Amino acid sequence: MKIATFNVNGINGRLSVLLRWLAEAKPDVVCLQELKAPQTRFPATALRDAGYGAIWHGQKSWNGVAILARGQDPLETRRGLPGDPEDDQSRYIEAAVDGVLVGCLYMPNGNPAPGPKFEYKRRWFDRLTAYAEELLALEVPIVLAGDYNVMPTDIDVYNPDRWRDDALFRPEIRDAFAELAAQGWTDAIRTLHPDVRIYTFWDYFRNAWGRDAGLRIDHLLLSSAIAAHLSAGDVDRHVRGWDRASDHAPVWVQLDLNLSGHRSRPARRARR
Question: Are 172 and 110 in contact (CB under 8 A)?
Answer without folding.
Answer: no
